Recover the amino acids of this structure.
């Protein structure tokens, strides 16, 4: 259950906004709101995750503080979102712990993993500190070990995220059949991949300041597609290894390295940009309690991309062994914390956009004249 | 803060759409411009921050409006709502000039909703700002700052020095500190007097105590009053304006759009004594909306109660305040402290008079009463399905029409019909020159934009010592009339 105070705040917000509707041109939140007359907790959870946190509505709002109605959609919806991240997470207590000390937990996880791997490596007497001919990582950590570790971590993260997704889907009252609706899936995919809701007809959005721009959208694209590109690189690597039987290290001109490099660069610029924007944001509309969670995701992404790029450049040097272990530890920590940190916003946002795609194709329940 | 405020070419008093349109338009000619906004920055923009659209003539579909809206159709709409109390020459000039407004506004960063999107009842005749009037004002202010227009907030003009129709200087309290500000030319765009409760009382009598002001608390009408005292010709009746029935629980000021209530046509409205007093089914919302404020204002204690049943729920825009709710009419009446027996009898008489028909809220349907006084002529359904709901209604004053008279160059006219020397007016302060009574949605912003642009341009010409421009765009076509 939403804490009573937050529930009341959400209801008040939607009551005022639904009686006003001036923001309906901005994004899906307001159009989805207009299809409702009452706002239950599940409606608030859905609308909160549909919100892209762009702030256009706040600056346009005639009822924003200091008006007595005290309407602050970005902040109220952010608070509800944070609550839903815990509500849908599996297992739930981990999310709670993470939310309170996101950065600390992430870094500790990385440090513990790195330490563990270094110790294990030393015990079995590996050549961690010696240069490796051709930069072959598998001479440091055997391929099977690496595969096994990442498969375990990856499957765990995927499973936990799937549970979160399904919990959201049920909570907002959608049937599983909706997940197989090609038209809705296409529409939602377009919304996700292009961040349509941050566009406002090309003007962008008021993030971080009062002037609309595309900066949030572009830095997010760099981060998102950087992440995706790294994922593609890893998948290609696996295909090369298992299907084609080509064992690394791959040349600079090979596809896994190209994708990895491009992705890595995106994951350096994107998160730095997002962090810089975040620092410049108007504090009045930010839910400060999420700061740790947001920053820890940015930091882990950055550490992963920087260590990965360093690993590529220095793969023939004596530092390679240590760098490899550090990089792997960071990436593993990143994946382990995915289901409990900022990353889940992507899962629930995508799910909310899919619900919106389904919802908008249905005839409205209410036909209210203005 | 208050240094160097004198010596500007153009002084604009006001901070809403008309004021900023004037400031930006004057700045286009390169003159220096000072804007005095009475409100603090957070509440800048006057009533424009509560607006949502403007009404524009157009010959063909545009990006922001559907179909076409001709000059004649537009003018006939004005004629109808004002009952002929308009100035055809100024009205037609405004209508023709409205055609270029959205493009001009876009140049200054104002964004519009797409023509087909959303709940746009008025999508053909009106262009809707993306995000509403405050977003429009934010765009204007950002451009104004970038264009080098000086803007002072919390600047309340308390007096004007005008000699023989020539503006000399303004006495201003800037954050409470008195400053005398001179300028070559004055543009008065400071709105009406709807938030001046004493002035309202002069016009309306004690009834004004029960009015709620839907917009800014900063429109005190001081500049308006002073201009009239200084010999500028006034126009309009102080009791005329845009007054709608709103939720009686709305705040005294600034409640804006969310306090409107439009369930009148879905039920009945009774006064303090539990009696009906007007045909709730007379017309569609634009007209209904525009007359019910005055109707409620004429009832004892300026209060009305709209009573509906479960059937009506979900058929009108929800208000921001929840209605009273009960399982019987008697219980409902008790809750809202109405005479129980009288209300029960009124509802019964109404229910008994309802004739069979096919309900359709989208047309003037055939659901009506027979033998009732007053009749309800459309959308009359029996109030018989619990739970029953009641909303309290109060007159919600949106803006006033008493203003200063201007000519087609936005120049204020003196009592002898001679032009003032250097005083222009734009927006609500002169809207009475066109709207004698009644209202048609979005026309206030149109008047503000059109006259703001003209006032700014003409003021700049005057400051540069050139005569009024022989404008083609807004020049009246006498031959056509």
């Amino acid at each position: 259950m939403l804490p009573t105070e937050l529930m009341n705040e959400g209801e008040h917000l939607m009551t005022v906004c639904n009686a006003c509707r001036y923001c309906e041109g901005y994004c899906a939140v307001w159009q989805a709101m207009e299809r409702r007359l009452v706002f239950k907790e599940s409606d608030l959870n859905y609308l909160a995750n549909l919100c892209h946190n762009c702030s256009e509505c706040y600056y346009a709002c005639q009822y924003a503080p200091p008006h007595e109605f005290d309407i602050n959609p970005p902040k109220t919806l952010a608070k509800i979102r944070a609550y839903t991240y815990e509500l849908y997470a599996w297992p739930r207590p981990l999310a709670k712990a993470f939310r309170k000390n996101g950065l600390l937990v992430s870094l500790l996880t990385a440090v513990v993993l790195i330490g563990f791997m270094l110790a294990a490596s030393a015990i079995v007497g590996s050549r961690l500190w010696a240069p490796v001919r051709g930069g072959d990582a598998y001479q440091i950590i055997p391929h099977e070990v690496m595969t096994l570790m990442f498969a375990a971590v990856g499957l765990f993260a995927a499973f936990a995220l799937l549970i979160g997704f399904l919990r959201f889907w049920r909570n907002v009252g959608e049937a599983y059949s909706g997940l197989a609706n090609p038209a809705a899936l296409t529409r939602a995919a377009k919304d996700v991949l292009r961040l349509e809701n941050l566009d406002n007809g090309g003007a962008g959005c008021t993030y971080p300041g009062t002037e609309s721009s595309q900066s949030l959208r572009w830095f997010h694209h760099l981060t998102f597609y950087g992440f995706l590109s790294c994922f593609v690189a890893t998948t290609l690597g696996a295909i090369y290894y298992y299907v084609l039987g080509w064992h690394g290290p791959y040349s600079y001109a090979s596809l896994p390295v190209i994708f990895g490099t491009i992705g890595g660069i995106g994951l350096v610029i994107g998160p730095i940009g997002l962090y810089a924007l975040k620092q410049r944001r108007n504090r009045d509309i930010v839910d400060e309690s999420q700061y740790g969670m947001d920053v820890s995701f940015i930091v882990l992404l950055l550490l992963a991309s920087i260590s990965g790029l360093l690993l590529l450049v220095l793969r023939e040097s004596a530092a390679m062994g240590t760098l490899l272990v550090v990089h792997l530890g960071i990436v593993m920590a990143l994946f382990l914390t995915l289901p409990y940190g900022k990353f889940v916003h992507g899962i629930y946002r995508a799910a909310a956009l899919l619900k919106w795609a389904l919802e908008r194709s249905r005839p409205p329940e209410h036909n209210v004249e203005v | 803060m208050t240094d160097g405020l004198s010596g500007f070419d153009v002084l604009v008093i006001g901070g809403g759409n008309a004021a900023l349109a004037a400031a930006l338009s004057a700045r286009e000619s390169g003159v220096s411009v000072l804007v005095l906004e009475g409100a603090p920055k957070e509440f800048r923009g006057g009533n424009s921050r509560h607006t949502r659209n403007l009404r524009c003539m157009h010959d063909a579909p545009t990006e922001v409006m559907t179909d076409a809206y001709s000059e004649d159709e537009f003018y006939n709409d004005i004629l109808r709502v004002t009952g002929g109390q308009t100035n055809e020459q100024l009205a037609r000039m405004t209508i023709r000039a409205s055609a270029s407004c959205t493009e001009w506004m876009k140049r200054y960063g104002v964004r519009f909703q797409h023509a087909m999107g959303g709940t746009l009842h008025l999508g053909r005749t009106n262009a809707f700002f993306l995000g509403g009037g405050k977003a429009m004002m934010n765009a204007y202010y950002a451009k104004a700052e970038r264009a080098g227009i000086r803007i002072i907030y919390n600047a309340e003009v308390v007096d004007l020095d005008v000699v023989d129709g020539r503006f000399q200087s303004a006495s201003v309290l800037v954050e409470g500190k008195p400053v005398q500000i001179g300028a070559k030319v004055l543009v008065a765009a400071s709105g009406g007097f709807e938030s001046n409760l004493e002035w309202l009382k002069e016009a309306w009598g004690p009834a004004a105590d029960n009015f709620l002001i839907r917009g800014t608390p900063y429109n005190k009408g001081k500049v308006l009053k002073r201009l009239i005292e200084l010999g500028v010709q006034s126009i309009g009746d102080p009791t005329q304006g845009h007054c709608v029935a709103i939720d009686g629980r709305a705040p005294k000021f600034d409640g804006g759009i969310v306090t409107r209530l439009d369930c009148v046509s879905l039920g009945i409205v009774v006064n303090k004594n539990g009696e009906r007093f007007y045909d709730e089914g007379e017309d569609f919302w634009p007209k209904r909306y525009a007359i019910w404020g005055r109707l409620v204002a004429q009832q004892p204690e300026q209060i009305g109660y709209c009573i509906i049943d479960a059937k009506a729920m979900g058929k009108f825009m929800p208000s921001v305040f929840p209605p009273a709710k009960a399982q019987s009419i008697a219980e409902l009446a008790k809750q809202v402290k109405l005479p129980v027996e009288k209300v029960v009898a009124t509802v019964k008489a109404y229910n008994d008079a309802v004739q069979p028909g096919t309900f359709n809220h989208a047309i003037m349907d055939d659901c009506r009463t027979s033998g009732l006084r007053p009749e309800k002529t459309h959308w009359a359904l029996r109030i018989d399905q619990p739970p029953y709901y009641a909303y309290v209604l109060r007159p919600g004053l949106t803006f006033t029409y008493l203003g200063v008279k201007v000519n087609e160059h936005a120049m204020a006219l003196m009592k002898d019909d001679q032009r003032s020397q250097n005083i222009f007016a734009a927006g609500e302060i002169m809207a009475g020159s066109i709207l004698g009574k009644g209202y048609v949605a979005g026309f206030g912003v149109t008047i503000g934009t059109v006259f703001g642009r003209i006032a700014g341009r003409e003021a700049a010409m005057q400051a540069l010592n050139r005569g009024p421009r022989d404008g083609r765009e807004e020049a009246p076509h006498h031959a056509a009339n």
